[in-house]
Amino acid sequence: MNKEAPIGIFDSGIGGLTVVKEVRRALPNENIIYFGDTARVPYGIKSEKVVRNYALQITNFLMQRNVKMILIACNTVSASARDEIQEAAGDIPVLDVISAGTKAAMAWPEHDHIGVIGTLATIGSEAYNRAIREYNGGVKITSKACPMLVPLAEEGWTDNDIARQIVHRYLASFEDQNIDSLILGCTHYPLFKETIQQELYRRKIRIVDSGESIAKMAREELARRQLLNPSGGTFECYVSDRPQRFQELAERFLGTEIPNVQIIQL
Amino acid sequence: MNKEAPIGIFDSGIGGLTVVKEVRRALPNENIIYFGDTARVPYGIKSEKVVRNYALQITNFLMQRNVKMILIACNTVSASARDEIQEAAGDIPVLDVISAGTKAAMAWPEHDHIGVIGTLATIGSEAYNRAIREYNGGVKITSKACPMLVPLAEEGWTDNDIARQIVHRYLASFEDQNIDSLILGCTHYPLFKETIQQELYRRKIRIVDSGESIAKMAREELARRQLLNPSGGTFECYVSDRPQRFQELAERFLGTEIPNVQIIQL
To answer: Considering only CB atoms, which residues of chain A are within 8 Å of chain B?
Structure first.
């Protein structure tokens, strides 16, 4: 495999850009191809079969672009299609946000009790519970769906009074719970990291950003395979619909502008 | 046509139940069949061609159930597939929320300036602007997308502090505008009617609930055609996915429980 080859990152929509942000920070020399399936978002309300089918179409697209690694930046796909994508990708390593977030949370020396927040679909699927139990069958897990946070992030209200009240209301579920860490189980949620930190500042709770975690895992895996790129850093961005809306929102998620979002039908 | 035949009402999801509520209030003797396309919601981000195709599938389903009238309780379908549905429905009258809301707003004696709120998709489509201009080319229109209101309604936060602050923030756009009426251009928004009224109470602004308007139009049209049902009142409810979630939310939208939501693939 080629060191200069890009890393493929995909999500059902825009949220995965928070993963791109962390990967660019951890691996500034890597070339990145992002695909956001904006025509078919949200995946969370679709059947597993449909989600697998979409995820494999995207995997094909990325493999045609000769990626050296695939990062699944979508919790729904991580929960329902991870194995199928790895099978389709053959030798190409596939990392996903659920495994990455879980691994990072479990690496914390104390983990008697883990909190998880995510969309209704992610929390309802119990995918984090299953992933955490694979590491440790005895750990206590408290999870809470926070359906308002995705639309809040897309409206750009991440640190105003309304955002603080909504975060406060959701995190009230954890007030009487002695959680050691809180997994942000949705790629939109890192936009609320400061607001969540302010809400939890009195307590020693580690906030696990699965974007940071998957970026760290990607760096370790590329190093292990001697596939780190010595001199790249390009970023190509594809969506399946409404590139302009994506471009408008992108700066908020990525922390920088995207000059040229291309539309592609799979 | 048969007086006992049901009225068919459909939406991309659950919002259309606010229309059902008004139709049941205005026409308690009518039998109603509702279809919510919960597998494919939201329609607003899909292309017009796809929305038309879905809408015609639903029209077919309703016609197989021998409906005597079709009410389009979805702003996206009203904007992009009204004529196609009327063509497919032949002699069966088809009413839609955009025409109904616009007609009701224009019936107000003073209408120099109309406000419209709706989803990003509805406001972006300018469908209300076109419908209003057909009545009156000179009227001023101020519109505002309120993307947080749909998730707020589905979370059940329609009259708490958070809802009041969000409504206040959105309606601030109309503060310096002398609007005579405000069209609630999304079937979720009637759930915020009281909150919106409180926000606007100092000003003589008529709030136009397109659910009320379409129910009134339906009653007039059935009376004109001598098709009013003397003795019905049944309600059948179909969705394309997740009937349980629909059932949970339904009470909030309809004001009463739905005993038996059936799932159907079109």
So the answer is: 38-39, 41, 45-47, 147-148, 150-152, 154-155, 157, 161-162, 165-166, 169, 241-242
Q: What is the pLDDT of residues B86-112, one digit of tens each?
A: 999 999 999 999 999 999 999 988 789
Q: Which of B32, B41, B74, B258 is catalytic?
A: B74
pLDDT at B221 over 90: yes
Q: What is the interface pTM, i.e. ipTM, of the complex?
A: 0.86
The pair of three-digit structure tokens given for residue A202, joined into one six-digit string: 């009195």
Number of neighbouring beta carbons within 10 Å of residue A133: 14
Q: Which CATH number fits domain A7-96+212-263: 3.90.230.10, 2.10.70.10, 3.40.50.1860, 2.60.40.1500?
A: 3.40.50.1860
Give Cα B194 to chain centroid, integer Å.
17
**Which DSSP category does A256 fall into?**
S
Residue extents of the structural domains in chain B: 7-96+212-263, 99-210
Among A39, A46, A151, beta carbon nearest to B148: A151
Beta-sheet strand order (sheet of B206-209) = B140-145, B113-118, B181-184, B206-209
Measure the CA angle with vertex B114, ends B113 and B120; round to 5°.
135
The tokens describing A70, both together, are 């695939």
pLDDT for res A202: 78
Task: For residues B17 and B251, give the distance between their C-alpha atoms in angstroms, rounded to a whole number.
Answer: 9
DSSP class of A191: G
d(CA A180, CA B124): 44
- Domain B99-210 falls under CATH 3.40.50.1860: yes
Torsion of CA B116, B121, B126, B132, to 10 degrees: -40
On chain B, the residues whose CB falls within 8 A of the CB of A239 are none
Which is nearest to B11 in space by CA: B77, B81, B91? B77
d(CA B6, CA B4): 6
User: Looking at chain B, which residue has its C-alpha nearest residue A124?
Assistant: B245
Looking at the DSSP bridge assignments, the partners of residue A31 are none
* Token representation of residue A146: 């926070």
Q: What one-character-per-residue DSSP string does A188-212 give?
A: TGGGGHHHHHHHHTTS--EEEEHHH
| Confidence at residue B29, expressed as pLDDT on a 0 to 100 scale | 98
pLDDT at B201: 81
